[in-house]
Design goal:
With 91 residues, this protein is an all-alpha fold. The chain contains three helices and no strands. The longest helix has 17 residues.
C-alpha cells in the first residue's frame, strides 16, 4: 500500500472520530456502548481503541495490515446505524 493511501485512510478515520484510546478497565465502547474486543476496538461501530500514533508506527512495518484495519473500521462506522434512530422516508 502506498504511503499516500495510508495517509488518506488515517485522515478519513480521524474525521470520523475513530481513534479513541480506552483505559484498560473499559469494556464498552464510548460511542455505541457495545462490548470492546481484546484490543479495545469496537466490532459494531468501528471505533479503534488505540491512539493513531500507535497505528502510524505499525503502518511503517505492516502497511497492508494497517490499511485493512483502517478500511474495515471506516466501513463499519459508515454503515453503523444507532439503535432507535429514525429511518428517513423515501418520499
Amino acid at each position: 500500500m502506498a504511503p499516500e493511501d495510508t495517509k488518506a485512510l488515517f485522515a478519513e478515520a480521524e474525521s470520523l472520530g475513530l481513534f479513541k484510546p480506552h483505559g484498560a478497565f473499559e469494556v464498552h465502547c464510548s460511542y455505541c456502548h457495545a462490548r470492546l474486543d481484546g484490543r479495545g476496538d469496537c466490532a459494531t461501530c468501528g471505533l479503534i481503541g488505540r491512539p493513531a500514533s500507535e497505528l502510524e508506527r505499525r503502518a511503517q512495518s505492516d502497511p497492508d495490515g494497517t490499511g485493512k484495519l483502517l478500511r474495515s473500521a471506516i466501513e463499519k462506522r459508515k454503515s453503523f446505524k444507532p439503535v432507535g434512530a429514525k429511518e428517513k422516508s423515501q418520499d
